[in-house]
Specification:
heterodimer; A: about 170 residues; mainly alpha; 5 helices; B: about 150 residues; 4 helices; about 85% helix
Chain lengths: ~170, ~150
Amino acid sequence: MAERAIRDRNLLVVFTLGTFHASVLIAVLVVVLYANGGLGSLLSGLSTITGLALFSALWATTVWSTNRTLRGAFTVAPWTSVPPDTLIARAAWRGGVNGIIFLACVGLIVGISAAFNGDLAFGVIGAGFLFFATVGAAVAFVIGFVVGLLFACIDLALVTATHAILDDKKSRP
Amino acid sequence: MVPAVHALSLFVRWAHVAGMAAILGGALLVWWLGVRRNRANGGLVVEVAERYEWIFWAAIGLQVMTGVGNLGVFGEALPAPASGWGTKLIVKLVAVLALAVLSVPRTLAVVAMAGDKRPHPALLSAFYGGTAAIVVGIAGLAVWLAHG
C-alpha cells in the first residue's frame, strides 16, 4: 500500500514535469511564431487531426523521456539525492534522444496524413526517410539536447523554490 | 447532419472549455477545503490536492493542444499580432505560461506534503486561491477574445 503510494507520487512528479516541458515548449513557440507573423501560414498547412496527433506524440515522448531521466533519482519524491550536475547531464542526453524519437513520430504522422490526402509518392518516402535518418536526426538530437538542458535548469530552480517555500513554512511558529 | 470537420472543431472547442472548467473547479474545491480546515482535516485536503494535480496537468496539456487547434481554425486569417485581438492573445498565452511555471512548485509541495504526512493547510489555501485567481483572469481573457 505504502509502496504504491510512493510509486504514484513519483509518477505524478514525472507526469507533471513531462507535461510542463511539452506544454511550455509549444506555448513559447506559438508566442514567438505569432509575434513574428509566421503562425497563421504554419497552422493553415496542418490539418486539425495532424496537429492533435503531433502534440500528443510530443507529450507522450516527453513524459517518457522525463521518466527515464528521473528513474531511480527520487529519495522521497520530489526530493532527490542525485547531484544537480548529474541530473542536468542526464536530462540533456534524454532530451536529445527525445528529439530523435519525436522526429520519427513527425515523419510517421505527416507521412500517414499525406497518404490519406493522396499526395505521397514512394520517391518522397525514400527521400524523406534518408533526410530523417541522417541530417534530421542529428539536428533533432542537438535541439532536444539544448531544450533538455534548459528545462533541467528551470526544473532545478523550481525544486529549489519549492524547498524554500516549505522550509519557510516549517520555520514559522 | 454536421460535417465531420465541423464536429471535430466543435469537439476541440468543447475539450478546451471542459479542461478550463476542470482546472478552475478543482482549484476552487481544494482552496475551499483548505480554508475550511477546522472541518476537513489536513491529510484529506492533501489527498484531494494530490488527485487534483493529476487532473490539472492532464488539463494543461489538453488546453495547449486544443488551444493551438482553435488557432489553426483561423489559418491565414489569424489577426495580426499588432491588432487589439493579437495583443490580448499574447497576454493570454503569457498568462498560461506563468500559470504553468507557478504550478510546478505547487505540485511539488503537495507531493512533498503527502510524502512526509505534514500538511500545511494555510499554504495549500494560498496555492489554490492563487491558482484560481490566475485561471479566472485567463478565462476572462478567453471570453474577451471569443467576442472579438
